[in-house]
Description:
- The chain is an alpha/beta fold.
- It folds into 2 domains: 2-173 and 359-370, Glycogen Phosphorylase B (Rossmann fold, 3-Layer(aba) Sandwich); 177-357, Rossmann fold.
- Helix content is 41%, strand content 21%.
- The chain contains 16 helices and 16 strands.
- The protein has helices at 16-28, 73-84, 96-106, 126-131, 133-142, 151-156, 176-179, 183-195, 214-221, 239-246, 260-269, 286-293, 308-311, 326-337, 340-357, 360-370; strands at residues 2-6, 33-39, 46-50, 53-58, 62-64, 67-69, 88-93, 113-118, 145-148, 167-169, 200-205, 228-233, 252-256, 272-275, 298-301, 318-321.
Amino acid sequence: MRILHLGKYFSPYVGGVEQVESDCVRAIGGAAEQLVFCFNHERGDLKETVNGVTVVRADVCAKAASQPLSASYGRLLKRAFREFDPDAVIFHFPNPFGTHYLLRQLKERPACRLIVWWHLDITKQKFLGKLFRGQTERLLKRADTVVSTSPNYIEGSKFLTRYREKCVVIPNCAGDERIRTDGNTVKRAEEIRAKYAGKTLLFALGRHVPYKGMEYLIRASAQLGDSFRVLIGGEGPLTDSLKSLAKGDEKIVFLGRIDEETRKACTLACDIFCFPSITKNEAFGIALAEAMALGKPAVTFHIEGSGVNYVSVDRETGLEAENANPEKYAAAIETLAQNESLRKQYGENARKRALTLFSEAAFRENVRTLLRIEV
């Protein structure tokens, strides 16, 4: 079997969709011949090998509303179809520019199986969503299977509800390497604990963009006493404004961009993992699943139609608060902080749920079953 993967970018580019695409490629492994086609996150047309898989990258000449644009994309994709002749395509949505050229190639290949991996609706760019509505409908009609990362998103998507019969649920995974710890990780976690001895330690991680909701975590921190410390990892367009908002709150520590080992050490060290995303742009929450796999209870907001509240279940693996309500978020944190046995219970439940539903092994089995490859 020959499988063509189409996404916006690919490793070493770091992003949630790109992580899932890499996980897909790894899950299939040597059971099929694979080709990855994407935009180049740097410059120029490029063909290379990444972890044993051929990757074709099309040069990006401009960007519009987060969508890369390329003068060479259509020509290179046509060549990829002609030379690779895929039996199946896994297309990571959203990608309106890629959708246009993909549908053109599939017109000539009715036998080629199309799997649309639906990461999220186009919600931020409302005009683009309306502009490409017809194209998206054509994509879903052509699709043989549509993958949703949670049942919540099927019910919450204005598109997927109309194509339920094509939908299957394959949750994202907390990859083995991303949750593996060793003596060095434990030592670093102990050092972090010692640095904030006597404090209830909160940890949050994510790009500093509006939908990640870091503003509401900072506002919640203002409701908490000095017995807390709030570690915030990551950076982004809102970093400066978040620091201004947090000014005077000595509980908050901005860590900046952190590496994988620091992320794991901070997660092990914390008492509560905070995941304050507020919109459906947060369709799943891989970082949340990874923290749960490391045995941490979570505090989330309720996001209607998002998979966040499928990943972490209210009053089972953590607590969820009314969306974008910092007072309720702070109250949920206080509840867990004051009840060590509850934190332990939720943390154990979180680890069990993550290792059952969101493990790399479960993801591999789901992907190979989808592709009718021997598990």
